[in-house]
Amino acid sequence: MNRNQHSVEILSLFLLFCVFAGAALLVIAAGANVYRQTADSLENQYHQRTLLSYVSMKIHHYDTFGNVFISDFGDGNAIELEEEIDGKVYHTLIYLDGNSVKELFAKKGARLDPESGIEIASVQSLDLKLIQSGLLRIACVDLNGQQNEVYVHLRGNGEAR
C-alpha cells in the first residue's frame, strides 16, 4: 500500500508540473504576441511620423516667397519646391507614385517621369491640400490603414499650380 501511495503522489506531482508548465507557456505566448503587435504598431507610427517630419522640414527649407507650390504629378498632387542654383532653376517634387512617396530633383522644364523618383516611404495614400493661403495640410494613410496628418504654415503663402 505504501508503494501505491508513493506512485499516486509522484503522478499527481507530475500532472501538477505539466499544468504549471502549460500555463507558463500560454502566458509567454500571449506576452510575445502582445509585444509583436506593439512593436509593429510603433514601427508603423515611426515610419509615418518620419515621412511627415521629413516633408515638413523639406518645405521649411524651401519656404520663401513663391518657392512652394502644389501641382499635379504622379498619382495626384505633388509638393513642388523651387530653388535657384548658379543661375539655373531646379524643382524638387514630393509625390505619390503607386504606394510609394517619392522625391525627384530636376532642372525646371525637364521632362519628368514619376517612376524616376527616389522612394521615401510606402503608404496607401498621400493627400496634399492648400487649406488657405499659407496653410498646407499633408495627410497620409500607411499600409495598415492608420492615418496621420500635419499642418505646415508657409511663410511665402504657397500656391496651387
From TrEMBL:
Q: Name one Pfam family in it.
A: DUF4860
Q: Which domain of life is it from?
A: Bacteria
Q: What name does this protein carry? A: DUF4860 domain-containing protein
Q: Which organism is it from?
A: Flexilinea flocculi
